[in-house]
Amino acid sequence: MKTDNVNTDNVRTDSVHTDNVDLENVPADKDNTDLIKKFVPSIERPSRQWYAWVTVLSAIVLFGIYALVRQIIDGQIITGMRDNAVWGIYTANFVFFMGLSYAGALISCTFQLLRIQWGKPLLRIAELITVSSLIVGAPFILFCLGRLDRIHYLFTFGRIQSPITWDVIAITTDLVFCIAFLYFTHIRDFAKLRDIPDLKVAPWRKKMYRILALDYKGTPLQKKYLHQAHDIMAAIIIPTAIIAYSLLSWLFGMSLRPGWHSTIFGPYFVITATYSGLALMIVIMWIYRKMQKLEDQITNLHFNYLAFGLVLMALFYGYFSFSEYITEWYNLTETSAILLAKFFDFSQYAWLAFIHILLAIVLPVIVIGLPWFRSINSVTIISALVVIGLWIKRYLIVVPTLETPFIPIQDIREDWVTYSPSWVELALTFAGIALMILIFVIASKIAPIIPVAEVEDKHDASKPILKFKTQGA
Amino acid sequence: MSKMSFFNRINPHLIIGLITLLFITGAFQQEAAGQERSRIRLSFVKKSSGDKLITATLYAGRGKSMVYLENELITLTASSADTTVALAELTTSTEGTAQLMIENGYRFPLDEEGFTLIEASFEGNDEYSSASSDIEVKDLEFDLDFSIEDSVKTVSVRAYERDSIGNEVPVDGLFMYVGVQRLYSILPVGEIMSSEEGVYSIEFPDDIPGDSTGTFTVVARIDDNEYYGSVERKEDIAWGTPVSFELEAPQRKLWTDEAPLWMIASVFIVLAGAWFHFFLSIYKLSRIKKVAGDSPV
């Protein structure tokens, strides 16, 4: 017979250490005991608003699927991609979403490995960013292919020497690992939901919770195994994500094109990804805090820390961007000169370039860096603008370079020389965004958006990251 | 009585008066000049082919630095005692130079001693004063001869001019350089100051790298001679050490049909390591269910 005691995780025989972790803003045990109950109503009975969101988002996704079907039937001619600009916003989206996934993985795994207590409430949001953006982002590169029916050739005829093959392997691996990690962090919460006797959900969901909880009861041995599994996955996901995203940058960096052929592209992509993921995380934190009234769990402290991280990233990003362009500009080749001139020409890409600099570098530094403008709302707005700015950056990486080949474009229709996205590409882009939101909307109905068991478990702070044979000073 | 320093004894009014005077005279001087003084540097080089290169460089001193005058018109003339020939009107480049190459065979007006006066002139403008420069040159010819005696390689340069009826007249007393033409400059082999009947000889080293057949270009040259200007003569000779400059172009290793071994190994190790840890964590997870009943809650 099951007991009513929901909080079975906190049973430990050793003493509790808090180390130097600032637990000031983590809710007290008494409150935490009831934390799962706070989420039960929304898990049991989705609101009308929730259904409305699901309907709207599903409609957008379905329209995107329709656009994709049209593209498959009619071919690439109904997109803006042509012989010269063979990539467009699909690739920009691919790079953008992959970056978000990398950032989410880095944040959640770092929190896990370094036992960062204040970050626990954010773990699930970070993991959901990772998985949802991987699910959404990865197909975008496939949309660039002219013959989707030959996609299996990548596996049957793939060459290990090709960065495309590396990327396919890395992204697939990353996706599997991240889904596994997301599941690992859900196990204890599934157990909690399973152990609520009067949880009013469909029987299949109860069964699902029971199966997915793996008979977890919070015994010390179970906790040990779960933590070990967690740590192993976290440790392996960080390098996997870095490799995956670096490989993505090498798709550009290893081609001899102006604006792409750069050794700095690997770290530049990684920094950009972390930056965009951090910004998106702040936005999502703000939304959930408002919608689910999570002020006790997602506190001002979280915004404070992440805003600090954001401004730091803005400075790093500015530095990398400057390094990238000053190197290109200093030893200017003819084609590079043409490319760089486009970023200063207001009839071409100057508007986008300057808006990107404003949104991704200038505004975050001013608004977050200076105390007069700094507030949770302003940080959130700036974060949203950073996300937009960094999407523009991805577009500026992909398209202008393709429009500036080494061999001059001749004897071709004028409207084929430059790229502009068609309705199909825009529909699929919005479908991707909608799908990502939809994943969040649905995921938060399956389990709490806050990893309740993790937040309640304060003993976790005492676990060493590395074990030493000798216990010395 | 206290001693007054030198500066205390100077009347301040005198100093102010002197400074004012300096300014006024300076201003008058500038106004009087109106233009900056320009100068022309002229050079004459007789190439190995017999072509003559005349270079005029127009410049002006500005403070301690020099300014080369761009886009200015330079007139070149050649004259003897009774004949003046306009050679060309040239516009100076960004480096202030105007160059004229005169093909071999062109007959300059000559005076009785065989000299020609080459003159370059600049008319001046609102900013810069007029300027002119001239050099008097005589035609000089070199012949190169290569010989090996007892494994000693010798280069002999015969220098001569022609008299009015075309006879060769040996020229002694020149300061001759001999070297080997490299990509950007001449590798000096030696200088020759003594000659016999116009023949200048120098022992030639045998360890200078040549091309794949050991061939290089030997250069004999005099520079800025007061009678002949600069004259050079070049000839190829296979006296060098053969060096093959054909570098094997590195192939793109990833364009091959099969990936290099290190890459296959790296990919395998990375993937094996990653997936091993994945399955290890899955194993740990599987233990959760197995130990569910083992220990008390």
Describe the structure.
The complex is a heterodimer of chains A (about 475) and B (about 300). By secondary structure, chain A is an all-alpha fold. Chain A has one domain (about 30-460): Formate dehydrogenase/DMSO reductase fold, CATH 1.20.1630.10. Chain A is about 65% helix and about 0% strand. The termini of chain A are far apart. Chain B has about 300 residues and is an alpha+beta fold. Among the domains of chain B are: about 40-140, SOR catalytic domain (Immunoglobulin-like, Sandwich); about 145-235, Immunoglobulin-like (Sandwich). Chain B has 3 helices and 16 strands. Chain B has helices spanning about 5-10, 10-35, 260-290, and strands spanning about 40-45, 50-60, 65-70, 75-80, 85-90, 95-100, 115-120, 130-140, 140-150, 150-160, 170, 175-180, 185-190, 200-205, 215-225, 230-235. In chain B, the strands form 3 sheets. In chain B, strands 1, 2, 3, 6, 12, 13, 15 and 16 form an 8-stranded mixed β-sheet that branches. Chain B is flat, with a radius of gyration of 37 Å. Residues about 25-30 of chain B have low confidence and may be disordered. Chains A and B meet through helix 7 and helix 9 of A and helix 3 of B.
Task: Give the terminus-to-terminus CA distance of chain A.
Answer: 48 Å
Top-tier CATH class of chain A: Mainly Alpha
Largest sheet of chain A: none
Q: Please indicate the percent range of residues of chain A in DSSP E strands (runs of 2 or more).
A: under 5%
Helix content of chain A: 55-70%
Indicate the low-confidence ranges of chain A by residue numbers: 1-32
User: How many β-strands of chain B, per DSSP?
Assistant: 16
Largest interface: A-B, 35 and 28 residues
Sheet of most strands of chain B: 8 strands, mixed
The whole-angstrom Rg of chain A is: 24 Å
Based on Cα principal axes, name the global outline of chain A: globular
Figure out the total of helices of chain B: 3
Average pLDDT confidence of chain A is 85
N-to-C order of helices and strands of chain B: HHEEEEEEEEEEEEEEEEH
